[in-house]
Amino acid sequence: MRFFRSNLVGLALTLTAPCVGCSPDSADSQSAGGNVNSSSSVPTDSSRHGTPDVAETAANSDVGSVSVQPVDFDGYRAVVTKHRGRVVVVDLWATWCIPCVQNFPHLVEMHEKYASRGVACVSLSLDNLGSEETTVERMLPAVREFLIKQSAAFDNLIATQPFDEMAAADKLGVGQIPAVFVFNKSGEQMRLFTPGPDLPPAKMYAEVESLVVELLGESK
Hints:
- By secondary structure, the chain is α/β, with parallel strands linked by helices.
- About 40% of the residues lie in helices and about 15% in strands.
- The chain has helices spanning about 1-15, 50-60, 75-80, 100-115, 135-150, 165, 205-215, and strands at about 70, 85-95, 120-125, 155-160, 180-185, 190-195.
- It has a six-stranded mixed beta sheet, with helices on both faces.
- The longest helix is centred in the middle third of the chain and has 17 residues, at about 100-115.
- The chain is globular.
- The relative contact order is 0.19.
């Protein structure tokens, strides 16, 4: 009986604990936490099938200095690798993840502050949930619109593989977003920042910046 009661207490704590990150189960029909017009988040005239359509959409996704590139996991790794010699910060986000959207301006600020000092910022959208409503073709307009509003003039990627595949242990190895990877100049992953009881999403980028400064061998 004591064991049963203790498990009930554990279950109650789990159910009442605040949600500090997002997973596919928490995705809803809202786009970019209100920052992107919901009418553009699910276009009705986009093709739903075929790699050529993704490539065509990507070719038309450049607006000024802001662009979005559809990639699978290997494509994502190739983008990180091309920045070897720089400290790389990768932000995993989605338009349906409110903490992600709230945190995204910090990535832009980091780019503006540290790009000239040897930091490469990369965003990777995990909006693709593997359903007809969340294919790359359908989600790309909302993702692109949000990035344009944020003036995200760095490498912006959108995963062609569904969230569950990209997040698997043998790939990204994350269970929720927002999540931020930091790689050193040799391309080694130094840390994965994810929200938790001791690190709420709002404080993640303060920790990220401290590590980036350390890797650069500079002071803020």
